[in-house]
Structure prediction request, 240 residues.
Amino acid sequence: MDLLDDVIGAYGGVERWRRIDAITVHQRVGGVLWALKGVDGIINDSTVEIRLHEQRSRLRPAPTPELRMSFSPDRVAIETDDPTPRTVEELTAPRNSFAGHVLETPWSTLQLAYFSGYAMWTYLSEPYSLTLPGVYTEQLGDWHEQGETWRRLGVQYPDTIATHSADQVLYIDAEGLIRRRDYAVEISANSPAAHYSSDFQTVDGIVVPTSRLVYGRDATGHRIEDPVLVSIDLDNVRIS
Prediction:
């Protein structure tokens, strides 16, 4: 059994994931990123729904109580939050809108919808998304941190999947759980990040980490302790 098989087994097994259509969570977010980008407070207390077998997500309420954000790789929109939604504002080819951005460049609400949409899809769909067509993985050398030895899994995502960066590295503990992921935030000047997951819970047969902390990363691969860039705490996890 290879490392990816270990991970998928630890999270409930591929057959269980294949039977899932959607994952919905309530999130509380924090960290310095949102104020830096001029979007503080918009998604701090919100509900996220992702579709597992296609890259789509919705976040509500945002940016105001009667509206929601809708994400797909090629389009993001602000919509009325009702059964027959009306598009209030939209952006096609959203990744192109980040051209020339530096770390301090502010985001529009639609750019926030793109970032939060692809990020939460990446996190909540994992590890099942690592089995999708075009995703390539390979086992790398071990890493020692927090008194543990973590196995590393390199991931290459195809252009058809919107995420932080095409190349990422996952750190796997002895139980097969993803404890850390490294990436560069391409849409924010390739800022290097070290992203930690904890507080794993089993919900309806799959494992979901309910706490996440994201730090900067130095040239040696270690996290920069201060400041916390992003924090995400989840509850009310629902599988359908």
Q: What stands out?
A: Residues 78 and 89 are 5 Å apart (CA to CA). The two ends are 29 Å apart (CA to CA). The first helix runs from residue 3 to 10.
